[in-house]
Write a structure and sequence with these properties.
single chain, alpha/beta, Rossmann fold, seven-stranded parallel sheet, five-stranded parallel sheet, 13 helices
């Protein structure tokens, strides 16, 4: 039995996802002394002592803020996620939030819950009170989408289908995302321009230093009176105090988000949901299947897809003897690895090397199996972080 078959699950993972890991080669459990893989959803791993045996971490979702990615990079451990697998679930929740804001549903529901009486008395209360909840229809309303990845793109397309006028901003949009995006989405040249021109603003960006408090006091002041802000990405991309001040000043009518906090709770104009974005049966299944497939492909063949800290590297097997090397992105590394192979009399049949920032990754198919001596020699090269031999 291969030594990489032990999988630790820190959260409940969909059985459909776990079924992608064959029971005869993998065992999964909520308690494993020396796991080769960790599968996680929302469990906070920052305070956790991650065993040296771990070769990969798979997040059954998109965000990886709960995983110490930088520390794993230093160990040569890829952190996989499942971008886009929960996109439809989040898109549907954003659309629900748009409709809640447009039709003032949250205060209307609270109004009805506070009614008393029955019959004609209740009818009169309803007829008298409903005027304050008159809303707007979405066609021709201006929606600004910040972040046009898998979720933002779906939101933009859905808003167009409802007749909204959509503009988007994403300086880092991928070619694939750009091809998927409708030509009807107007490009904003800057976040400030989008904020000024939009009646509804929805955020779909990861939480990075450059996106922290993307919506701040200065941008709240730019908003049209009565703007609606939707945040179903990460709580930190919005400055809560700035939004609350904007609501008090009339710049913002509603702030709808998926991240409740003590400060937001009970505030007028705030609708905070209990992190429901990916909380559908379908999304959990899609995320688990996607990340399980990626982890298995990495463990068995060394291929990397959707690792947040590693480059994408995929190579069709042309030999039963494959070596995977994670290393620093520094000059002469490939030459030193190749020299070690040559000195051991190993012929390299095929090889691919790619980098991402400070991280690089090399796959080599060789014509005969490398022994432990040559594997140790490659591991001893300065800058090499992890070496694995992957026989078929």
């Amino acid at each position: 039995m291969a030594d990489w078959r032990h999988v630790l699950t820190l959260d409940p993972i969909s059985p459909l996802g776990l079924s992608r890991l064959p029971a005869e080669r993998y065992e999964t459990a909520a308690s494993v002394a020396a796991p080769d893989v960790i599968l996680v959803r929302s469990h906070d791993m920052h305070g956790m002592e991650i065993p040296a045996s771990v070769k990969a971490i798979g997040r059954a979702g998109a965000g990886t803020n709960n995983i110490p990615v930088a520390a794993m990079s230093q160990r040569g451990v890829p952190v996989f996620n499942a971008p886009g697998a929960n996109a439809n679930a989040v898109k549907e929740l954003v659309l629900a939030a748009l409709l809640m804001a447009a039709r003032n549903l949250a205060p209307a529901i609270r109004f009805v819950e506070g009614l008393d009486g029955d019959g004609e008395a209740l009818r009169q209360q309803v007829e008298h009170g409903k005027k304050q909840f008159a809303g707007v229809e979405l066609p021709n309303r201006r929606l600004g989408v910040i972040g046009l990845g898998a979720i933002g793109g779906l939101v933009a397309d859905a808003a167009l289908s409802m007749g909204m006028r959509v503009q988007g901003f994403d300086p880092n949009i991928t070619v694939e995302a750009a091809w998927r995006l409708s030509a009807q989405v107007k490009q904003a040249q800057h976040v400030d321009a989008l904020v000024r021109e939009s009646e509804f603003i929805t955020l779909h960006v990861p939480l990075l230093e450059m996106t922290r408090h993307l919506i701040n006091a200065e941008r709240v002041a730019m908003m049209q009176p009565g703007a609606v802000v939707l945040n179903f990405s990460r709580d930190g991309v919005v400055d809560e105090e700035a939004v609350l001040a904007g609501i008090a000043a009339g710049n913002i009518k509603y702030y709808l988000c998926d991240f409740p906090s003590r400060r937001l709770r009970g505030q007028p104009g705030v609708v905070a949901l209990p992190h429901l974005g990916a909380s559908t049966q379908e999304a959990e299944e899609h995320c688990a299947i996607m990340v399980a497939d990626q982890v298995r492909d990495y463990l068995e063949h060394g291929n990397i897809r959707n690792a947040v800290n590693f480059p994408t590297v995929e190579m069709v097997r042309e030999s039963p003897h494959r070596l995977a090397v994670a290393h620093a992105n520094v000059p002469n590394m490939v030459a030193r690895i190749s020299t070690a192979m040559a000195d051991a009399g190993l012929n390299i049949h095929n090889m691919v090397n790619k980098s991402k920032g400070e991280m690089a990754y090399t796959l080599l198919d060789v014509d005969s199996p490398p022994n432990q001596t040559v594997i140790g020699q490659v591991a001893a090269i300065p800058g090499v972080l992890m070496v694995r031999f992957l026989p078929t």
